[in-house]
Amino acid sequence: MESLRDKSVVVTGAGDGIGAALARRFAAAGxxxxxxxxxxxxxxxxxxxxxxxxxxxxxxxxxxxxxAALGGTVDVYCANAGVPAPGTEAADEEVWTGAWEVNVMAHxxxxxxxxxxxxxxxxxxxxxxxxxxxxxxxxxxxxYSVTKHGAYAFAEWLSLTYRHRGVSVHAVxxxxxxxxxxxxxxxxxxxxxxxxxxxxxxxxxxxxxxxAEDRFLILPHPEAAVFYERRAAAPDEWLTSMNHIxxxxxxxxxx
Length: 255
Known about the structure:
By secondary structure, this protein is α/β, with parallel strands linked by helices. It has helices at 17-28, 40-50, 63-69, 93-121, 142-162, 180-184, 186-192, 200-212, 223-233, 235-252, and strands spanning 8-11, 32-35, 53-54, 76-79, 124-129, 167-172, 217-218.
């Protein structure tokens, strides 16, 4: 991996959690970091901590402001912002739309804005914080699971399409991480994710190890690879095992 010193990095959803951990890690490596968050105060606090630049606002269309803050160049873009979006197929249209906009289309818009210059220069790095839900699924969270599958598919497509032209893509797929998003997952998160939850800094460590090896798929929880293999090799068995978890979760919610 090339040196990150003086590279321009954007991290969305960086006011806390995984995003803040990524901002700290990139800054420690010598990068100039644009810290984006919908919460302007949180963005400013992390930016001050890491010696970066606060770029508050909606992650769905942050690239123009980030480019302006960084002097017109972005070398690494971390599409980290996401919404948890619990619910079933019956979730409101607004929930589905919001999840789609932030978890997928924000990535698409960022790539659309950045790829022309990356392809011209022959280098660029796109980091997508997907979640293991994008490889597997998550009980009790249809909008989240579906849109995270979309985020993974888009990252995969970017990689296969542009890797020979100097663009590196990484899909970061942790399971439980001790953040506000884990809390927002409620009882399903407590059952499925909390027992093996890791710290945001562990996710940053996994990303940097994966970047050093130029790996596409970054698994902060290595056991996710085993689950992914089982899902592909024996889908009915895997779905049955997941249905058992669904039933266990439903039982915890009975009055």
